TrEMBL record:
Keywords annotated in UniProt: Signal
Domain PDZ: 112-195
Official protein name in the record: PDZ domain-containing protein
Secretion signal, residue range per the UniProt entry: 1-20
Organism name: Tahibacter harae
Keyword Transferase on entry: no
Regions crossing the membrane: none
Alphabetical list of PROSITE patterns matching this protein: PDZ, PROKAR_LIPOPROTEIN
Length: 228
């Protein structure tokens, strides 16, 4: 998906409990410690998806702080426009592991990294990597499955809704099916994303289906990728 987004426009945007997959990054730290340090990227939030939606170019170094809990940190950062792009786990909590985390953060362009230490765990150190996005819409969306197309026809299904975004302010919800925008049928993810970009800064009317009920929602789109 392009924001899980498309985050979307996304971010697009990115689901709260998205699936992850293992990804190999060519960093010096990983080359030296790949058995002890493992990074998993959130599916649909690869660089090709995230980079066009960034609030700014990646910093030289991410902000690295001790986290509270993964759930609490996501709840805190999501309303600020940050999305989780990956997690790492480490067989030891030492200076080498923390250096690896910093290097991995640079490799994936993370803006913030949160650390979680648990001496009793098999992996006593873990980390979550976040990127801040600029959102026009504020929700991830995907093409309908074959079964969904039979049920709804054309459209896209929403995934994660980013807090304090155009989508959240319009009371859109995860799993809503958007069938039309300003009366024009939504043919799929790519077409929907194109229309969002064309109408940045405008108020659009979305025709949606939620739990079998037909609804309409007006959405004030952001004026640019930096303006919600």
């Amino acid at each position: 998906m392009k924001l899980r987004l498309t985050l979307l426009c996304c971010i697009a945007l990115l689901s709260g409990c998205a699936a992850t997959r293992s990804v190999v990054y060519e960093t010096p730290a990983e080359a030296a410690r790949d058995a002890a340090d493992r990074y998993e990227a959130v599916a649909g939030r690869e660089a090709a998806v995230i980079d066009p939606l960034r609030a700014a170019a990646p910093a030289a170094a991410a902000e690295i702080l001790a986290g509270k809990t993964p759930a609490a940190d996501q709840e805190l950062l999501t309303p600020q426009g940050y999305v989780l792009i990956g997690n790492s786990r480490h067989r030891s909590d030492d200076a080498a592991a923390r250096e690896w985390i910093a290097a991995q953060g640079r490799a994936v362009g993370a803006d913030k990294i949160r650390l979680y230490a648990d001496p009793a765990a098999a992996d006593p150190l873990s980390a979550a990597y976040f990127v801040r996005l600029r959102l026009v819409f504020g929700a991830s969306f995907r093409d309908l499955s074959a079964a969904e197309k039979k049920q709804f026809g054309a459209g896209v299904r929403l995934g994660e809704i980013v807090g304090d975004s155009p989508a959240s302010r319009a009371n859109l919800r995860s799993n809503d099916v958007i069938r039309a925008i300003d009366g024009q049928p939504v043919e799929g993810r790519t077409a929907f994303q194109a229309v969002l970009k064309q109408r940045m800064g405008k108020i659009v009317t979305l025709s949606i289906t939620r739990n079998g009920e037909a609804l309409q929602r007006k959405v004030q789109l952001g004026r640019s990728f930096g303006s919600d």
